Amino acid sequence: MIEDASHKPLPKTAISATGCHLLDAFNPPAVKIDSPAIQVMTDLSQVPVATITASATLDDANRSMIARGVRLLLVVDDSHRQVAGLMTSVDILGEKPVLAAQRREVRRQELRVADVMVPVDRMDAMHIEDVKKARVGHIVATLKADGRAHAIVVGQDAQGKQQLVGIFSASQIARQLGVQIHTHEMARTFAEIEAVIAGV
């Protein structure tokens, strides 16, 4: 054990009797359909993205989603620096694994993330500069048009290298709009968002 007389323990502070609140990143603000889109984006410079490697099993991926409370995992290479693809809870729990197992003539338990993920060359994204000019309604329309519950946002670093900067989630947008989500079914989520927009 390393002891250093120059480092003293920090003083303690009491937890406020009125309550200690979570950061805004974990309590996103309520929004309206014409609020800035950036208010419903998960900013990956503030909140770490949930990742998994392509060699992990589908059961590993499912457990990871449950433990982190997410429905999307970014698939990364072994260095954990490069995006290899993405997978959602639908990819794990839908018909994709059944079809992949039949095609490869293996049991479902033998499948890996690589067998059902959306590979990076088939992914598309929104650009952060377009997102900065958009409203929440534009994001809802984009997700619905694509038939997806999630969308990723990319930008460039100082060297011009593309990097992932954000993620949109239909369920998070619904929560921030004040829509009660009773099901994971995407069509129901969009119907409930549209009811809020229409003032029903």
Automatic annotation (TrEMBL):
UniProt superkingdom: Bacteria
Boundaries of every CBS domain copy: 41-106
Keyword Transmembrane helix: no
Record has Cell wall biogenesis/degradation as a keyword: no
Keyword annotations from UniProtKB, A to Z: CBS domain
InterPro entries: CBS_dom, CBS_dom_sf
TM ranges: none
UniProt name for this protein: CBS domain-containing protein
